[in-house]
From TrEMBL:
It comes from Leucocoprinus leucothites. Residues 1-17 form the signal peptide. The keyword Repeat applies. One of its GO terms (biological process) is negative regulation of fatty acid biosynthetic process. Keywords: Repeat, Signal, WD repeat. This is WD40 repeat-like protein. Residues 448-467 have a biased composition (Acidic residues). It comes from the Eukaryota. Residues 297-318, 447-467 are annotated as: Disordered.
C-alpha cells in the first residue's frame, strides 16, 4: 500500500519544493515567465540553474544558486535569461553532466540546439542539428559528456556524439549517430510493420540502460550497447500476479505526452522504472539485471517465426526476430489521480515518487506514512475513477474546446474546480476516441518512410524484434 500527499497547482508558475523540510506542505518559492503549458523542467549539473520549456517555444533560465535566502525573495521570480531560437514547442531540455553553462534543447520544429553560455558570439548554424522529424526527447548521457540520446515523432531513437552532430559542416558526420535502436514492430499475421512514436526517452543513473516511451505501445527497456530492446513493461497482471480482467483498464499510452524515470533506494543500479498511464494510475516495475533480461530475450529466425505459437509484436528486421522479456506484473500501481497520469519521477534519495498529469495537482507517493520530509500521509485509494457511462457532456466539452469556446489555461475568472472538471471531461472524450487504438492500424510503416533511423550506421538493421 502506498501513502500520498496531494498538492493543487492552479497556474503557469513553477514551484520549488524543499524535501529536506520536516513536513513538506507548500513550496519554498515560485518562478514566472512561461505563457503556456510547461512540458519540461531540469536543473544544471551543480543545480545552479533551473531551465523550463514548453508550448510557448521559449526556454526560461533561472539562477537558483541564491537559495537559502528568505521565501519572499524567491516568490514569483522572473527568469534571468530566455532563449527563443526554436519556432515550435520545446519538448526536451537536457543539461550537460558536468558543465552548468551547456545544455541541449529539442523541439517539434525538428531542431536540436546545443547551447553554450560561455561563448560570446555562438554560431547558431554550427550549434543546430536539423532532422526530418519532430524531436520528442533529448538526453545527455550521465557519464559520457559528448554522448546524447534522441527520440523522434517518426519513431527513431538514436545515440549521437555531439562532436559529429554540431560544428562546421565539414566536421559533421551521419547527423552524429553512433547507434540506431530498433523501434519498429511486427506481429505475426500482419504484413505491415509499425513504427510507434517514441514519445520520450530516459537514461538510468549510470547510463547503462534507457527506456523509451512509445505511443500506443509499452515502455521498452534498452541497454546502450544493444540496438534491440531487452524488455517491455506492461500492465497485463495486477501487482499480486493475477491477470487484469478484460473489462478493467490497465496500462496504456494513447492520449498524452508521457515521461517515465528510473530510480531505486540509493543502490548502485536503478532497480525500478515508473511511468504514467491513461488508466489514471502510475506504474512501477522492478527490473531484473541487464544480464538476466538479455538471457531471457528470445532470438527467432525468420524461417521459424511463422511457425512459432508465441503472441505479441516485434520490432522489424529481416534475418532475426528479437522477442524482449515481458515484465507483465508491476511492483505496484499508484493511485490518487482522477485523470491521465503523464509523468512519474523518483526522488534521488528518498523512497518517494511524484506523479502529475492532466489535473492541476501533483501527488507524492510513499511506502510509509512518514519520512524525513512528510508526516501522517493518508493511504492511497484502492480504486480509480471510471469513465461515465454517458459521454455526451464530455463530447460537448471537447467540441467547445475545439472552437475556442473556453481554454483550460489561465482562467482567473472561473472557479478552479469548474475549470478542472472541464479539463477532465475533455480528456475523458479523447480517451473514448483514442484510448484503444491498435498501433498496427494507427502507425503503419513502409520502407520509404524517412527518419534519422534510416541513416546508415553499423548496426543489426536487418534484424527484427518482437515485444
Amino acid at each position: 500500500m502506498m501513502l500520498i500527499l496531494t498538492v493543487i497547482i492552479v497556474d503557469l508558475k513553477i514551484f520549488l519544493w524543499d524535501f529536506y523540510q520536516e513536513d513538506v506542505r507548500e513550496p519554498i518559492g515560485s518562478f514566472v515567465g512561461p505563457r503556456s503549458n510547461i512540458l519540461n523542467l531540469t536543473f544544471s549539473a551543480s543545480n545552479r540553474y533551473l531551465f523550463s520549456g514548453g508550448i510557448d517555444d521559449t526556454i526560461f533560465q533561472y539562477d537558483v544558486s541564491y537559495l537559502g535566502s528568505s521565501r519572499a525573495q524567491i516568490s514569483a521570480r522572473s527568469p534571468d535569461d530566455t532563449c527563443s531560437l526554436h519556432t515550435d514547442t520545446v519538448r526536451a531540455i537536457s543539461c550537460h553532466p558536468s558543465q552548468d553553462e551547456v545544455f541541449l534543447s529539442g523541439s517539434e520544429d525538428g531542431s536540436i540546439i546545443r547551447h553554450d553560455q560561455r561563448e560570446n558570439h555562438p554560431s547558431r548554424a554550427q550549434n543546430t542539428l536539423r532532422l526530418k522529424s519532430e524531436i520528442t526527447g533529448v538526453q545527455y548521457h550521465p557519464n559520457m559528456e559528448y554522448i546524447f540520446l534522441t527520440s523522434e515523432q517518426s519513431g527513431a531513437v538514436c545515440l549521437r556524439d555531439e562532436r559529429m552532430a554540431f560544428g562546421p559542416l565539414s566536421r559533421r558526420s551521419r547527423e552524429g549517430i553512433v547507434q540506431v535502436y530498433n523501434t519498429k514492430l511486427t506481429r505475426r499475421g500482419i504484413s505491415s510493420l509499425s513504427n510507434p512514436e517514441a514519445s520520450s526517452a530516459a537514461f538510468d543513473h549510470d547510463g547503462s540502460r534507457f527506456a523509451v516511451t512509445m505511443l500506443n505501445w509499452y515502455p521498452a527497456i534498452y541497454r546502450i550497447s544493444d540496438p534491440h530492446p531487452i524488455a517491455v513493461c506492461t500492465g497485463e497482471n495486477k501487482p499480486d500476479g493475477t491477470p487484469v480482467p478484460a473489462e478493467e483498464r490497465s496500462y496504456s499510452n494513447s492520449c498524452t505526452m508521457k515521461h517515465g524515470s528510473f530510480g531505486g533506494p540509493g543502490l548502485e543500479s536503478d532497480e525500478f522504472y515508473a511511468a504514467g498511464s491513461d488508466d489514471f494510475r502510475g506504474y512501477v516495475w522492478r527490473l531484473p539485471s541487464t544480464a538476466e533480461l538479455v538471457n531471457q530475450r528470445q532470438e527467432v529466425s525468420s524461417n521459424d517465426w511463422e511457425n512459432q505459437g508465441s503472441a505479441g509484436a516485434e520490432t522489424a528486421g529481416k534475418e532475426k526476430k528479437y522477442i524482449p522479456t515481458s515484465i507483465s506484473t508491476p511492483l505496484c500501481r499508484l493511485t490518487g489521480h482522477n485523470s491521465i497520469v503523464n509523468t512519474a519521477v523518483f526522488h534521488p534519495h528518498f523512497l518517494h515518487i511524484v506523479t502529475s498529469g492532466v489535473e492541476r495537482r501533483i501527488v507524492l507517493h510513499s511506502p510509509t506514512p512518514s519520512s524525513p520530509c512528510t508526516q501522517n500521509l493518508p493511504a492511497s485509494p484502492a480504486e480509480v475513477r471510471q469513465l461515465d457511462a454517458d459521454g455526451t457532456l464530455d463530447r460537448l466539452t471537447f467540441n467547445q474546446a475545439l472552437i475556442g469556446a473556453f481554454t483550460t489555461v489561465g482562467e482567473p475568472g472561473l472557479a478552479e474546480d469548474s475549470s478542472e472538471r472541464r479539463t477532465i471531461r475533455m480528456f475523458d472524450h479523447i480517451l473514448r476516441e483514442e484510448g484503444d487504438l491498435d498501433v498496427f492500424k494507427a502507425r503503419r510503416w513502409v520502407e520509404s518512410d524517412e527518419s534519422s533511423s534510416d541513416v546508415a550506421v553499423d548496426s543489426d538493421s536487418e534484424d527484427d524484434i518482437e515485444f
